[in-house]
Automatic annotation (TrEMBL):
<dbReference type="InterPro" id="IPR004087">
    <property type="entry name" value="KH_dom"/>
</dbReference>
<protein>
    <submittedName>
        <fullName>2',3'-cyclic-nucleotide 2'-phosphodiesterase</fullName>
    </submittedName>
</protein>
<dbReference type="InterPro" id="IPR004088">
    <property type="entry name" value="KH_dom_type_1"/>
</dbReference>
<dbReference type="InterPro" id="IPR022711">
    <property type="entry name" value="RNase_Y_N"/>
</dbReference>
<dbReference type="InterPro" id="IPR036612">
    <property type="entry name" value="KH_dom_type_1_sf"/>
</dbReference>
<dbReference type="GO" id="GO:0016787">
    <property type="term" value="F:hydrolase activity"/>
</dbReference>
<keyword id="KW-0540">Nuclease</keyword>
<feature type="domain" description="K Homology">
    <location>
        <begin position="73"/>
        <end position="161"/>
    </location>
</feature>
<keyword id="KW-0378">Hydrolase</keyword>
<dbReference type="Pfam" id="PF12072">
    <property type="entry name" value="RNase_Y_N"/>
</dbReference>
<keyword id="KW-0694">RNA-binding</keyword>
<dbReference type="GO" id="GO:0004518">
    <property type="term" value="F:nuclease activity"/>
</dbReference>
<dbReference type="Pfam" id="PF00013">
    <property type="entry name" value="KH_1"/>
</dbReference>
<dbReference type="GO" id="GO:0003723">
    <property type="term" value="F:RNA binding"/>
</dbReference>
Length: 190
């Protein structure tokens, strides 16, 4: 009976049982491939999205870490002193000396428990350098009081300004010489 049904189906469809099986298998294979490719695409999209989010998170963390380190590095100078006793002299009675130094230089001076060091904090590197040089002269000289602080800071400011101007002149003449050399043609060098 089963054999008769198979023969009837073969005549109606115009296909042999083997051909029908092959077509069915091919059809199922194609459907399976399509579904598998769809699953693969979904998994790839999820992986790309996750990777993109993770990469952005890592980049943001790195930028924040570097930005913080750079901001601190570019706004702080550590002034080393020989002994902690000098800290008291820099601060002065009731903080007069340190306030005078901060007012004259525009730099925040942090005196804390750090042994043999004072932190000079300002975003302007020129002001920090003026404060550092003035502190160095005051500590070396030993006379630290508000009037002397103003005098030394004024003198150091002039020195730093002159040094900046001289450096600018040297840089300009060096870059002008370099530009002239670059503009020489090969034939004029021979």
């Amino acid at each position: 009976m089963q054999q008769q049904q198979i023969e009837k189906l073969e005549t109606i469809s115009g296909l042999s049982a083997e051909d029908a099986k092959e077509r069915l298998v091919e059809s199922l294979k194609e459907e399976a491939k399509t579904q598998a490719q769809s699953y693969i695409n979904d998994i790839m999209d999820d992986a790309k999205l996750t990777a993109s989010k993770e990469a952005k998170r890592i980049v943001i963390q790195s930028i924040q870490r570097v930005a913080t380190e750079t901001a601190i590095e570019n706004s702080v100078t550590v002034f080393h002193i020989e002994s902690d006793e000098i800290k008291g002299r820099i601060i002065g009675r009731e903080g007069r000396n340190i306030r005078a130094l901060e007012a004259a230089t525009g730099v925040e001076i942090v005196v804390d428990d750090t042994p043999e060091a004072i932190v000079l904090s300002a975003f302007d590197p020129v002001r920090r350098e003026i404060a550092r040089l003035a502190l160095h002269q005051l500590v070396t000289d030993g006379r630290i009081h508000p009037a002397r602080i103003e005098e030394v800071v004024s003198k150091v400011q002039k020195q730093v300004e002159e040094e900046i101007i001289e450096t600018g002149k040297r840089t300009r003449s060096t870059s002008a010489s370099t530009a002239c050399i670059r503009n020489l043609s090969v034939s004029s060098v021979k």
